[in-house]
């Protein structure tokens, strides 16, 4: 092997290594976002369960609060939404990872029947 062949082979391995490192870094970043979305979804589920357990007709105003999960504070809010059937009301829950974030990390809609 000549020195030129060795240098070309090293360049190819260096490029392959950089590509592999970039791919792994992107996967780790995506995993962190997925983890945050999963926890935010659980917070939204918890709020829907709480609303159902209170056995009250959901009001149309926003209710807000915070919940601690996995060492992180999530900011939730929910409100009732009128439906075509007066015996049902939709409930929209939004969860954000920052108090003033524009886009929610998770959103859920469920329906509650009037007792």
UniProtKB/TrEMBL annotation:
It holds the Pfam family T2SSI. Gene3D superfamilies: GSPII I/J protein-like. The keyword Metal-binding does not apply. Residues 34-112 form the Type II secretion system protein GspI C-terminal domain. Keywords: Cell inner membrane, Cell membrane, Membrane, Methylation, Transmembrane, Transmembrane helix. GO terms for biological process: protein secretion by the type II secretion system. InterPro entries: N_methyl_site, Pilin-like, T2SS_GspI_C, T2SS_protein-GspI. The keyword Membrane applies. It is found in: Cell inner membrane. Cleaved by prepilin peptidase. GO terms for cellular component: plasma membrane; type II protein secretion system complex. It is a single-pass membrane protein. Component of the type II secretion system required for the energy-dependent secretion of extracellular factors such as proteases and toxins from the periplasm. Type II secretion is composed of four main components: the outer membrane complex, the inner membrane complex, the cytoplasmic secretion ATPase and the periplasm-spanning pseudopilus. This is Type II secretion system protein I.
């Amino acid at each position: 092997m000549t020195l030129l062949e060795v240098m070309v082979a090293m360049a190819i391995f260096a490029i392959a290594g950089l590509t592999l490192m970039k791919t792994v870094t992107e996967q780790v970043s995506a995993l962190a976002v997925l983890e945050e979305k999963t926890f935010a979804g659980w917070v939204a589920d918890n709020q829907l369960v709480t609303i159902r357990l209170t056995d009250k007709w959901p009001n149309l105003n926003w209710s807000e609060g915070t919940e601690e999960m996995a060492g992180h504070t999530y900011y939730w809010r929910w409100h009732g939404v009128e439906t075509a059937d007066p015996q049902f009301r939709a409930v929209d829950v939004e969860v954000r990872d920052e108090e003033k974030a524009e886009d929610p990390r998770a959103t859920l809609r469920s329906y509650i029947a009037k007792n």
